[in-house]
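Bench notes, bay 3.
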Amino acid sequence: MKKILFASTALVATAGVAAAELTIGGSARFGLAYNEAETNETRIEQRMRVNITGIAETDAGVKLEARFRLEANEDDHENSISGKGPGAAGFAVSFGGLRVDVGNVSNVLDSGDQVDYYGYGIGFTSFLEANSNFNGPATGFGAGSADATTIKARYTVGDFSASLSYKETRAQARTATTLWSAATGGTSTVVYNDDAVAADEEYQLGLGYTLANGMSLGAVYSDSDIAGDYWVIGLNGTAGAIGYTVMVGDGDNQQDTSISASMNYEVSSATSIRALVADGGMTGADTAYGIGFRHGLGGGVTLAGGVGSDSSSNTKADLGVSFSF
């Protein structure tokens, strides 16, 4: 990550600000991805993300941050932001053990503050993750639009931490567009865009504790008008060369209790093997499982790949490289 430090008082004009900093960094990946459920089963996978973060700190030690993300994907792959400019910004204020985020930010579950919701993903795209059979409301990075407001607070003291998030989504009506065509004799056609969004309020509370043996135990409870109640409990840690996550969750929006486990085994300082299994969840969901590898090539470059089956029994696989800058 490259950092540009603005020390000039001409650029740092706010009274009482001790220092300001702009960081630019990101990640990229490309390779082959396979999904038997898609029309074009094998495709070129590519993605580039650039994160731009402005940081300032007052003389009293209060740290302020503002960040937005640029992202581009391959044109033929389904995504909503490829080729577009940055989305809404996310802001944060932190002092001591307290941090408050607002705007285009994650809620408690998505942020991983208390529970490692995604575990050790398979493949260089993480096409399978520990939450594969979970239906928890993990929303973030996209929630900071004009129709939604997200705020999250986290407080840490010693080995204990607590997080609270609130998200309000305002109702957005179905829109209609009138199209006029000379080719059809000047007739007009009304086209409806099915982008209606229902109003919703969501609260999430998370608690976490780091145990003496290196394990971390956490829990998240969520309540929203649309999804209803949802809870997740997770345990993660390391034992020698093995890293692991175990998670269980259930809620009003799924039929069965979900359970998953993921593992990362360090074969050497550069190579690791990953595996995961997830079961339960929505009605008719099948057991998701996969195995993969990661190998560091140096300079922040990683070669990775994997193969597995998702909760719809579709075979997925990928192979490619990722790197950070």
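Next record in the batch:
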Amino acid sequence: MELYQLQEQFKKIYGRETEHVYFSPGRVNLIGEHIDYNGGLVMPCAVTFGTYLLLNVNDDNLLSFNSLNFEEKAEVKIHSSYTKDQDHWYNYPIGVVNELMKNGCRVQGVDMLFYGNLPIGAGLSSSASIEIVTAYALNEIFNCGLTKLDLVKLCKIVENNFIGVSSGIMDQFAVAFGETNKALKLDCATLDYEAVDCDLGDYVLAIINTNKPRRLAESKYNERVAECHTALAALQAELDLINLCDIDGDSLKTCEHLITDDIIKKRAQHIVQENDRVKQAAQELSVGNLKAFGKLMYASHYSLQHLYEVSGVELDTIVDYCKTDGSVIGARMTGAGFGGCAIALVQKDAFESFRENITKYYSEKIGYAPSVYNSVIGDGVRRLA
């Protein structure tokens, strides 16, 4: 949908022209999965799909939430605090308002219209995109004085405490700080980051949506977080660690006898080895070695499939196909798993045949078609008009 069409929809709903337009992208994590809540390194990038927010300040002392993606809408009076309203989409912006007010921001009545071209529940961080675009816009309009990093931390609190998902900070960080043709090598313990050149050259980033929706709060995501805490506690019996990612793969081998549960041991192995893969990936991308990076993508998926066990038949089917297609040099699931999306590096001139062939293969195996997108690496949250 074009921007002028969104503006027309806003006028149709609210009866006047919109004064402010903002955009926040979604993200894919190129490598470093389930690392963010373990204090290690991740490598996300912003994509060109995302969430648009059109808004005006009103004199009615009301927060009005409308979306072109959902039928549900809400209109609430300005209060000092709010609580989650079942599982409605507008919990995300309401949670942001709630947290902004806790930080002393004087939010007034606002008419808001959201539109996203990210597939919902596909692991591309539609929730973080909504949170960040809301926080960024309201912070600017009401002169709250918060930095972009403040907003990232604030939105993580919303996700954890208001929504109830024990996620790390990667998603919010990526959609806020993304840069065109850059991958963000982010240390989730310190929030130090490096923008790594990610020139895909003759390849494009294919995003393959399994079309199997998954809801993080209802999945085994929080269970994996708890398992990692268990692994860390076992290692802390003899090691001075704050996070699982404070050790590397070789160090884990020498002390994994401390973890007596085989399942917990596998979880720790994935986390530590995946953290090492991010370091290797940054080195390979910095010198343009895409084929070596592609091998790391495949290794990452194998680990997520067999050690961390967050993949599934749909995601595995996509990666299995990619291994047979000569135009693909790497593929893996991205996001929390249990459905959602996979990504692949595909030769530009072969993308359309790739789309056709993987759709046929997947449909025959799974019984319904995937959605296949061609994306570039884009910028983070910003004002459009």
